[in-house]
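Late entry, evening session. Most of the bench is empty. Finally got around to the prediction I had been postponing all week. Sequence below, unchanged from the version circulated by S.P.
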Amino acid sequence: MKSDNYYGLGNVAEIKDIKWKYNHIKGLRHKKVLDIGCGDGRYLKLSKNWYGIDNDDRSKVLNDKRNFKSGDILTIPYDDDFFYGIILSHVIEHVPREKTMDAIKEMKRVLKPGGKIFLYAPNPSSPFWYNAVDHVNPVNLACVAGLFQLNDFNIIKQGHSLFRILPNFAEKIVFTLFPYLPSEFYIVVESKKKFSINSVL
């Protein structure tokens, strides 16, 4: 998985990050999945069935031969019920706080019933990860989980990660004792299937 280091990470860190997240998402590798804020198209390289949107001009150049469209999380340029999954990696913190609910509703619009969202975001308690000028929405895991539940999503998996260097149980202990360590949180949610009277007859 070669990268042009678009996000400023070293190659080893980048590859480890991609592999860790891909393990969450790989069950949908043969289905339509949208990467919102796809940047250099790192996830689009992993499956020909995956799509990407971004409002960055460089993204358009890097992804000109892939399933890419210009767009953002508030105006996703696809039809209703189009995707089986959505990847949202370090995007929600760039969405204005007052637009967070609108963003979730827009994702739900293009997601099929039973589709999944894989969200990753920096820990807002960390001064190391939250000093970027474009980080305007310091949401934490509890806040994001609550917003998804208000929009009829079921929580499948959630937690924190510490650079993928510790086992999950160890990271939970470390994060509890030292909440200000550089870290990100993740949550996987599933859109509730639409109820039909025919399904119970």
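Two things to note before I forget:
The longest helix spans residues 11-25.
Strands lie at 33-36, 50-54, 68-70, 83-89, 111-122, 153-161, 184-191.
Will write this up properly tomorrow.
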